[in-house]
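User: Hi! I'm working on a homework problem where we have to compare a predicted structure to a textbook description. Could you give me the structure for the chain below?
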Amino acid sequence: MKALSLVAPGDARITNAAEPRPQPGYLLLQVEKVGLCGTDLNSFRGRNPLITYPRILGHEIAATVLDGSVAIPTGTRVTVSPYTDCGQCASCRRGRINACQFNQTYGVQRDGAMTELLSVPEAKVYPSSLTLKELCLVEPLTVGTHAVARGRVSASDTVAVFGCGGVGLGAIASCAFRGARTIAIDLDDTKLETARAAGATDLIHSGQDDFRTRLREMTDGLGPDVVIEAIGLPETFRAAVEEVAFSGRVVYIGYAKEPVAYETKLFVQKELDILGSRNALPEDFREVIAMLDAGRFPVDRTVTAAVSLDEAPGALAKWSENPSLFTKIMVQVRD
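Assistant: Happy to help. Predicted structure tokens:
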């Protein structure tokens, strides 16, 4: 069967892969569509430290069950959690399987879903009546949604989100879905308008306005109750701690590529909850499916290209040459 493989950095090809064999507790899926995101772009460009080559890409999955079960019968449309959990590490023992020490994500540490057939554990499969395009967006939106859950966001909160890329949009939409006042911060007008469509109540263009001044004006000088950092720059890492309200919560989804120097007295003086956020839990998948089912996310604004499996290597190369050309590419795997 055909598959999209990264043979080496910059070298994506359509290759042949072995068909999966039946296993107890697994479902056989016909892969329909798969989304390509910034992680896939970094892998193509050789900038993802977690990937090994060759590797079949694909972790944002929309599929149809070919060989089902009583709970998830044949013919059901589904999406899939692309993460593994060992059941033995400290995180798994606490029930926080999203942060498994030995996680292997589809398309990164293990071969992914950019292939015609996929066999997956039934526990990782989420059935839904969503469209295939919507199902492809579930997993990327869960990453931001998990950060919102980590921040214990409620309708009484004012939340500032640094970054309106795919992950930041997931956080913005989830905050809005929970009824929180949500302030989106970015340098890009198009991303900010998409953030508004996703539910942001306020926008700050940080290239035109001083975001610190604007945040204080918007919160009567108190600062946001929660700040979610979805960029990964030292300056926004520090700004999250500096601008959040006293006794507020800071959630980091992005991670800086260099050391970050802090004024650590703010941690204590403000008595902050400083939280990391990684991947997603089953309840995050269910929340995103409910959010999409309610029509609370601008699906069509976030998908910038649709290509066939045969066209995917060329699309990745074009994206690498001009990163601003695409936000998300959706690959039609099934002819």
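For your comparison, note the following. Residues 187 and 206 are 5 Å apart (CA to CA). The mean pLDDT is 96. Good luck with the assignment!
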